Amino acid sequence: MTAVQIDGKAFAAKLREKIGEKAAAFTDKTGRKAGLAVVLVGEDPASQVYVRSKGKATVAAGMESFEYRLPADTPQDELVALVRKLNADDAVDGILVQLPLPKNLDEKAVIAEIDPDKDVDGITPTNAGRLVLGMDALVSCTPLGCTMILKDMLGDLSGMDAVVVGRSILFGKPMAQLLLAENCTVTMAHSRTRNLPEVLRRADIVVAAVGVPFLIKGDWLKSGAIVLDGGINRLDPEPGEEKGRIVGDVAFDEAVGHVRAITPVPGGVGATTIAVLLRNTIVAAYRNAGLGDPEGL
Ligand SMILES: Nc1nc(=O)c2c([nH]1)NC[C@@H]1CN(c3ccc(C(=O)N[C@@H](CCC(=O)O)C(=O)O)cc3)C=[N+]21
After folding, report:
1. Cα separation of 59 and 276, whole Å?
2. What GO molecular function annotations does the UniProt record carry, in alphabetical order (predicted)?
3. Is the model's pLDDT at 50 over the cut of 90?
4. 250 and 147 in one domain?
5. How far apart are CA 64 and CA 166, in angstroms?
6. Residue 227 in contact with residue 261, Cβ under 8 Å?
7. 292 and 29 in contact (C-beta within 8 Å)?
8. What's the mean pLDDT when you consider all of the chain?
């Protein structure tokens, strides 16, 4: 059996169409465009991949994009002052501070400054709490995109065995909560997990984001598993390449032969992240303007 390759780009294109309609309706109702502010400090490689395409997609959806690129040695108080300015700015509906921040900055303290109702990454303590408690939360984009893909493909996820590999605040933790809310039996695996192959072999759903290229081998996955690969790893350049290839956490070529479905990298879950970010921005904009939730997103 050869797996279905889940097309993240096509999924994102469908979502972006709906978002474009909601963004236009928002402008009609309020007389302004929904706005997304992105803050990038320093030069993390995964973040560079992200920023490249994000500004363009925001404008294409009929929203406004505000970009702040700060040097790696930006002092804490300067970054906090910027976040507070964006919190107070009525043209800004969503704020995204790219992670990880350079080591000299206190990441948790910066995150805690973001207005939870503009926190389109769902990383503030308030949104993390809302998610766990089953309240209306803004939720991290890649896990939300993964959940949308799974529900689109499978409908009901009740009772399925899901293994999440990685426990980051942007991916693993919210991913596990979302799967739990969909009634999966969730196992969280991470760098200290003993015998990862054995843990993975029982999984109907595998979701990975650990940042280790090809960590998960094909024969660790049961045939029939659905595999969502959130890894974004840049390999060293091969001779003749200028930049190394971007690859995931799963040994795709091995896995594709016997799982039921798998997302490629690139073109898989990463390709949905930006569309979900725009979705979160529009949701935040509607809620904060007192318009309620936009329907159908
Ligand atoms: N606060 C915060 N939130 C994030 O969501 C966040 C972050 N920080 N820091 C960096 C990582 C990385 N990330 C990506 C999102 C989309 C693509 C993406 O568009 N990928 C496409 C294109 C890849 C390419 O251009 O080769 C794909 O996978 O097909 C990549 C990477 C979000 N991140």
Report:
1. 15
2. methenyltetrahydrofolate cyclohydrolase activity; methylenetetrahydrofolate dehydrogenase (NADP+) activity
3. no
4. yes
5. 33
6. yes
7. no
8. 96
